[in-house]
Spermatogenesis-associated protein 20-like TRX domain-containing protein (Geodermatophilus siccatus), 665 residues
Amino acid sequence: MPNRLAGATSPYLLQHARNPVDWREWGEEAFAEARRRDVPVLLSVGYAACHWCHVMAHESFEDEATAAQMNADFVCVKVDREERPDVDSVYMAATQALTGQGGWPMTVFTTPDGRPFYCGTYFPPRPAHGMPSFRQLLAAVSDAWRTRREELETAGTRIAEGISARLDLGTPVPLTPEVLDRAVAALAADLDERWGGFGGAPKFPPSMLLEFLLRHAARTGEDRALRMARGTLEAMARGGIHDQLAGGFARYSVDARWVVPHFEKMLYDNALLLRGYLHLWRATGEEWARRVADATAAFLVRDLGTPEGGFASALDADTEGVEGLTYVWTPAQLVEVLGEDDGRWAAEVFEVTDTGTFEHGTSTLQLLRDPDDPARLASVRERLTAARAQRPQPARDDKVVTAWNGLAIAALAEHGVLTGSPPSVEAARRAAELLADVHWVDGRLRRASRDGVAGAPVGVLEDYGDAAEGLLALHQATGEGRWLELAGDLLDVVAEQFVDADGWHDTAADAEALVHRPFDPADGPTPSGTAAVAGAAVSYAALAGAPRHRELGEAAVGQLAKLAERAPRAVGWALAVGEALLAGPLEVAVSGPAGPERDALAVAARASTSPGAVVVVGEPDAPGVPLLADRPLVGGRAAAYVCRGFVCSAPVTNVSALGAAMAPS
């Protein structure tokens, strides 16, 4: 029989709707029941594409005896960390404080008022590797609650107070050129010179750092920063972390060489990486980077697009419980699909060996060098993709998360204008319309939707920052004023609800009160909320001529400046925004009627690598487009107006003059 999760909107919660565990969703009702029964809360946090979440569910939550023990001694609460990043943040801080590490599934025991007193992650069904079995843990916690209640409650109070202590980031200061130079030097010291990336295995795509390095190279002309970005982007593109057939990137590589991925594909990774490859292509003209960008854009639209116009959160790591089942190959399988000659050629090209690079003699596909016969490669890819489509496919988490859709909107809007691909811009517009029509409710954002219906959880800071980032990119791509207006509304909510005398917060002032009000200044797999808002605010200021928004962006970056000095790898997006502030950022209005003259100026303007540059193209005085206000034709011709920090140079009417006007000052 279905349990209480049967009515949830989260695909992750619905995965547990037929567990014999009497799961409840997070909320006051669950904690009231714990108080009524005088038992602890067992909080289990995960997400739909999480491999070990699936494992623990199968081993423990689907087991009748384990479920009976859970139901008898606890109120059991399931949380989708992607729907409730605020809850996840609070209890992950506790888990890391107590155990020195974190991850999912996360298993936390709390008092009936939410104070955590015991934390962990995955627990096996039988004792193993120094860990108790899950049922042993349940019995020990239940016994301690009955016999040592005061001790557990005291521990809960102490832990809650400890995680509530706010990280001292010092007095906000500007990010100076010297700080950014030192950040590049620190990254160079951590760089894996041979395989790219920073540090050792496991390796995650360092998307925010790559954007910083590309911007730093553009502002300073420093070749070292460009080499680091290019080398890492190429190593990832050629490795098994990249889907060599259908495009898209996996969450991370378990090894240092990008060979064996953790196979889940996340929307946020692919949106951020699309921009990285796009910006590298713009800076260098390297066609391989353009091909990767095109394939990643196609993956987003084809495999993650939802019928309502948004983008699904993820594809699972495993298929029918087996990691990599959809994606890996043996030499014999290649021959079976392609025939003897092409099969053996493909095995050589894609590094598929008899011993295998993954498990059970299978290999991930790599493309460590481009073959001499691109037409043959294209044919092989097409046939292998078709054959792979006949295999079982990973499940899809089809909830639409506001922040990650904002990142996808920005990436696709940029892809569309830089590569001349109207379908990418249209895909970005459809997603923005979903955010505007479904996620924007009574002047506030909701965190997620599914099947076109907004969920109850409210937006957190990253939702406002990333959504604004996407809307501003779409405004530039389309010249439509509604996206600039909505981005401004989002930033107004940020200023009112997420910043106060104590600094920045990840939850709104009027949001549900948790054990503590979370604030994480560091980037994770996506930009921190503070850095995301900083980038959007600086772009909005340039597009709308709004000094107070520039001040908001400067304040956000300043909040992270000390952390940038101590741990630059933690604040890549803030460093990238710092580059934009130092560069102006550049503001370019291309004004004139549609036609070849305006198109040529638009292409030249958008080719600029100046950090944080904003470009709007349209008719003079187009409604809702401040950058085109009072920007008339010059001598009857389309003209480009170039400004930095609200100070403008004389308009120009030809591409060479525009290039000179946009050159670093």
In short: The CA atoms of residues 328 and 359 lie 9 Å apart. Residues 4-164 form a domain with the Glutaredoxin fold (CATH 3.40.30.10).
